[in-house]
Structures are given as C-alpha cells and as structure tokens.
Amino acid sequence: MTDVRELFDNPEELEALRAVCEAEPPAEHVVHLPETKSFSVPKGYDYRLNAPVQTFFHRLLWNIVVLLLVIIDTVFFGLRIEGRENLRPLKRRGFVSVSNHVHMMDCTAVALALSHKRLYTATLESNFRIPGIRHLVRALGGVPLPRSPVCMAEFIASMRSAIAEGCAVQIYPEGVLLPYADTLRPFHKGAFTLAASIGAPVLPIAVKFRKPRGIFALYKRKPCMTLMILPPVWPDASLSGTAAARDLRLRVFCEMFCALSD
To answer: Which residue(s) pair with 227 in the sheet?
Structure first.
C-alpha cells in the first residue's frame, strides 16, 4: 500500500493528485431509479427528526435494520469491515464521514460501520421521489440535499448542530454513484467546507472490491465488498476558511487514494 507521507514528499505526484481531486466532478448519473413522487425540499424542513418520540422510533427501527443488514450485506455482498480501531478517537465527538460511491448498497455498509452513532446521510433530493423506499430512507437518517440557497443554508446549519451534538454526517464527495469504480473521482468541496468551518474531523472510508473466495466463490459472480475505516483527519488549525477546506480535502483524498492503491 502506498504511504501517504511519500506523496507529500513528492511535489510532482502531490500536484497531480491535487489536479484530480479538484477537477470538476461529473454530474451525470449512471444509475437511474424510477421516480413517481413529487418532492422538493421546503423552507423550514426538519432534517434531523430529533424530537424525543422521533429519536425513540428511529433507534427502534435502526436496531432492527442493523440486524437485517448484517445478514444481507455479509451473505449477498460479502461485506468485510476493516479498521474499526480508527473509530476510538471519535467515540464521544461528532464528525463528517466521507467515502467513495461505488455500489448501490455501500450506504448500508457505511451505516453498519458507524452503527454506534446517530448518522445523517446526505443524499440526492431525487431519492426522496422513489416510491417504496423514500420513507425508509427518511426514517433511517437520510437527509435530502436541497437546491435553493436558502434551504442549503438551513441544511448546513442543521448538520453543524448535529455534529456539535456528537452525531455523524455522511457525505459522498464524488457526488454520484459509479458502480465498481476502482479509482477515486474528483471531490466536491462541501463535506470539507462543513468540517473545516467548525473544526470537526473527517473520517475517510474507502470501499474496494475483492475476488470471491471460499464459500462466496460458490455462489457469487460479482466481487465482494471491503470497507476500510481510515484514521480520522483533522482540519489544520493554522489555516482558515477556503484554505483550510482545500487542505483538508486534499489530505483526505490522498489517504483514500493510498488505501485503494493496494
């Protein structure tokens, strides 16, 4: 596995990675799900659902879903989670988690890895128009990314409050799903701007695939999924504003690049 320190000791390679990281991310969607409902985020939308009754039912539903996901993700997708020890420094604090988006079910894998936390997962507004799962996504912590500037300001304020109270906010910096992609795509800056603005750490999560072996080789044709929890990355306190977010984005990108390069 590439050592991230070697990248920062090599200016040319570091600048090449910076160019990839900061390139304009593609906007097209490879996977399209049917949308038959009408939904757009209204002003004053309740992103957190953290009233006592809502929290109780969220936790009840979440405990049931976790048990089901352990079975589904392990049996059908061969999920393996590595690096749980890197969660220890974040046990009592909120953070932003980021991961590459390479599988329809990688969101459930991330949720399992962070099941000890109240997790809010930023997702496309269009996902709240999909019949059947839209209410489940909402109940399990999915939060729609609004389009209007006013609603986006409310979204950011809500997520800041969640992090301050010890919750985790999961964001896909690549923006769109590209199934089984084996390289990192450019990162949007939003996750890192959010973290840097309040001095919160970013937890990088790298999802990669491996050839089915053992019992999985008997019935799986597609690769098995491995989720790697990497050490958290803190914003540079000597920087501020855009510089802090840009630095944080590059360092997280490099950590994930090295993890996926093995």
So the answer is: 81, 207
DSSP 15-39: HHHHHHHTSPPP---S------S--
**Which residues make beta-bridge pairs with 171?**
98
CB 171 within 8 A of CB 190: yes
User: What is the value of pTM for the model shown?
Assistant: 0.93
Q: Round to whole Å and give the CA distance between 138 and 132.
A: 11
DSSP symbols for 76-122: HH--EEE-GGGGGGGTTS-EEEEE---STTHHHHHHHHTTTS-EEEE
Contact yes or no for 82/228 (Cβ under 8 A): yes
In this structure, are residues 31 and 107 in contact, taking their beta carbons and an 8 Å threshold?
Answer: no
**What pLDDT, in 10s, does the model give residues 183-227?**
999 999 999 999 999 999 999 999 999 999 999 999 999 999 999
Task: Look at the alpha carbons of 142, 146, 149, 154 in this order and tell me if their dihedral is positive or negative.
Answer: negative
Distance CA 138, CA 33 (A): 17
